[in-house]
Amino acid sequence: MQSVAAGGAGAGDGAFWPLVAGSVETVTAFPLYSLALALGAAAVVSSSRARRLDATETTVVAFLPWVAVAAALSVLGKTLVLPANVVPLLTAPLVYVTAFVLGGAVWILAADHLHPDSMWSVDEALAVVGVFMLAPITGVTLSLGGREVHPFWPVVAFLVAVVCTVAVWRWLDGNTPHVTAATGVLGAAVLFGHLLDGTTTLVGIDILGFAEQTPLSLRILEFAATLPTADLLGAGWLFLLVKLAVAVAVLWVVGEGMTDRPIYQHLLLGLTATAGLGPGLHNLFLYAIL
């Protein structure tokens, strides 16, 4: 989702805080940055092919911490006053390509320097570096941005997403076991990512007072606001259900074998997981410093 709220940190002076900044318009507004990042991503793909590195399920999972890196960088870009030539790299959706290029560089370097008897595999090194990248990004955001951490609503949204993920996954496993078997860990990541986006959006819209900017999401929320349930349930619940439906639909497509090549399945699941995890984690990080 893409929203703004008149509230939170900095709201006292009338500031508006973006929940997820940027859109396709960001790509067209910064064509040189977009081209440079596209070339960087192409270089990662080309280098991985030259080294015969396969995008296995484990590899795609190892890139997921870099989605969190992208979300954290996006929040950092909105919290600190940065040079103008850096801001586009930290604005969604370009920030996700920035994180992919950084993670891809780590992937290539790990493949070049780690030996078979090393303590970590290439994929493990990729994931670990991504996780450890979060510490300095968070530290800089909090220290230089002068922010205090307010964890209550992020924790609530996260726990609700976890509980919903477990419940839906168990239901899917009991009724369509071939779907959960075919999608595996990445399937669970898809489900959790979109439920996290849904729960954080619900909290942002109905509790924290954010306003939606993404046109499609805005229509869903506006429609929900016209229903008789609006006074009791708010508007965010419908967005949550839509996100759940999207996730389950993608799992069903992969589970039914409509994408027959494993690499395409892994990439489809990875990209779908990123589409949910990215804004969901961004929302969590932003809520924590409002």
TrEMBL record:
This is DUF63 family protein. The keyword Transmembrane helix applies. Keywords: Membrane, Transmembrane, Transmembrane helix. Pfam families: DUF63. It comes from Halobium salinum. InterPro entries: DUF63 (IPR002749). It comes from the Archaea. The keyword Transmembrane applies. The chain crosses the membrane at residues 30-48, 60-82, 94-114, 126-146, 152-172, 179-196, 235-255, 267-289.
